Amino acid sequence: MARMQGAVIKGGQRQVELREFDVPEPGPGQVLLRMKAAGMCGSDLHNIYRTMNLDDPGHYLGCIAGHEPCGTVEAVGPDCRRFEVGDRVVVYHICGCGHCTPCRKGWVVNCTSEQRNVYGWHRDGAYADYMLTEDYTLLSLPDELSFVDGAIISCGFGTSFQGVRRADVSGYDTVLVVGLGPVGLAAAIISKARGARVIGVDISADRVATAEKHGCDLGLVADDKTLDRIREYTNGHGVEVSLECSASQPGRMLALESARLWGRVVLLGEHGRLDFNPSFTIIQKQLTVHGSWMSGISEMEDTIEHIVRWGLRPEDIVTHTFPLEQVSEAFELSDKGEAGKVVFTWN
Ligand SMILES: [Zn+2]
Ligand SMILES: [Zn+2]
Hints:
The protein has 347 residues and is α/β, with parallel strands linked by helices. It contains ten helices and 17 strands. Helix 3 (147-166) packs across helix 4 and helix 3 crosses helix 9.
C-alpha cells in the first residue's frame, strides 16, 4: 500500500505534526486527488491551532487538516463519470447529505443533516499528498487559473465573492471594506472588478498599503477620524455598500455608521459581539443588513467563471508559499500575524 505525508493539528496547543498515512482508495462516487496547492485559512489558526472549543459541535476532529485544496485527479471510483485522471479541479470544501433542502439547492454549507462534514475538520483534508473527495464537491479548474488560484477560491475568495454578490455591487457604488485580511482584500479586489470605487480600512498600515497596491482608491489606517474621512470622501453621504470583514465591534460599527441612507451592509467576519442602538444605526437610515456565510456550489462555479472573465488572479494576494514539510514553520509565522495569505504547494 502506498504511503503519504499528512499534517494533523494538535488543537489548542499551537502544534502541527506531519504523520504517515496510507494513500486512500476511491470508492463509489469518490475521486482521489493529487494535491498541488492548499491554502491556509484564518479558521485553521483561530479555531484549531490557537484554541479549540470542544463544546462546539462542529469542532475539529483531529483528521488531516486543510480545507482549501486544489489538485489533479489521480484516480476515480468505479461509477465516476464526471472526471478523468489528470483533470485539474477545485474543491468545494463541505460534504452534505445530498437530500435536505439546502443540499438540493447546492448550499451544502447549510446542510441540516448530521452527515454534514468539512474536509480538514471532520474528514481528511488538504494538507497531504493525496486527498479523498466526493465527486459532487469538485469543480473544473480552468486553464487560465493556477493551482494556487484554485486553492484560494475554495474558501476565501468564494466567501468574498458571495458577500460582494449579496450587496449587488456595481459601478454605481462606493464600497467600504472593513478589515483587509485575505477575505477583505479579496472583497476589495472583486468590488473593484465590478466597477465600484473602493475604500479599504484596517488597523494595520501594511494591510492598507497592500490594498492600495491592489487598486483600493482610498486606504485608511483606522483611528478616531476614520468615519469623518469616509464621509468627507463621499461628500457627506456615506457609502452605498459596506463589507464587514474585521469581526471586531469597532469595525462592525464603522461599517454600519459609514453606510448612507438606504445603504447595504454585509457582515462576513464571524464571532465576537455587536452592541448598539439599532434606531439610529439601522432603522432610521433604512439600511439593508445581510449576513453572508461562504457560498453555494453553483455560486462557486459562477465565481470561477467571473474571475477568469475579469482577468483576476487570486494568487496575487499570497504572501508566503511553503512545502508541506514546513507546515510547522508556516503556522508559527501566521500565528505571529506576520503573514497575509499562506499556501502550501507541491511540485
Ligand atoms: Zn476557510
Ligand atoms: Zn444536506
